[in-house]
Amino acid sequence: MKTLDPERFTAYIENTARSVIWDYELIEPGELVVVGLSGGKDSILTLHLLSKFMKDFDFKLKAVSIDEGISGYRAYGIEAARKAAHDMDVELVESSFKEEFGFALDDVVDRYKSGCIPCGVFRRYLLNKTAFKMGADKLATGHNLDDEIQSFLMSFARADFRRFTKFGPKLDRIHPKLVPRIKPLWKIPERDVGIWAVMNEVDVHFAECPYSQTSLRAKMKNYLNNLESRRPGTKLSILQSFEKTFKFHKKQIEMGECTRCGEPSSLNICKACEMVEEIKKEESP
Question: Binding site residues, as ranges?
């Protein structure tokens, strides 16, 4: 088995991310980029890369961590996020489901078929709300190549074509309160992110969320990994196919504001407020 050279491998990671930022104009000079920092390998690599690129692309950098409230899991990720932010001298702002909504994910997960359903809704809501309060021009997430094609195929399987507007390395600002998201790891496979973390002995939270195995994403991930093992290059081909097909044909969803909380929403009442209301009704005597 051929031994990987740490310097060359790290250079490949950095050059791939740098080219995505450059080619897709993810960051403009003078902007404040806030990283969604979970403490996992993807978000910590994103922070490492952006911290290194700050001078080259002339931007400011902060981070935000969300505590969903998952017993025996999230605390370790938060600690890894704190350490990474401290080591790179990046300001970290922390928020939580408990503070914002009055309950932790563990408290409400049994109401849903998968814990990923409420977590996805509330996490996206709180990441955007917190990043906007921080004055962010861009919200950088750790979505890698695998994440992108999993989401694409899940939406395709559900015939949820509205979600196609949310794919790609950069999302446009479609509402004043909706911080555009960027994905510097868009062309980096998940496996390579893990190799980078181990090879460079970076402290990350490797454990998988205990609720993740109940999701459609977990099934799609296993299927794609099996396919990739039999036909190497399949994942990249899917991403390239998606990019060629949808890159120049995106119709943006019209965004208004939720009548309850005032946050950006394509509906009169945003999904987060709708779910909070349902949860509180069930909790009432």
Answer: 36-38, 42, 66, 142, 147
Q: Other C-beta atoms within 10 Å of 226: how many?
A: 10
* Domains of the chain, start order: 6-249 (3.40.50.620)
Annotated binding site for ATP: 36-38, 42, 66, 142, 147
| Strand boundaries in 168-221, DSSP class E | 181-182
Q: How far apart are the first and last CA of the chain?
A: 63
Rounded Cα distance between 264 and 118, Å, is 18
> Average pLDDT of the chain?
89
What is the tens place of the pLDDT at every residue in 247-268? 544 555 678 999 999 999 988 9
The three-point CA angle 91-64-127 to 5° equals 155
Pair type for strands 264-265 and 256-257:
antiparallel
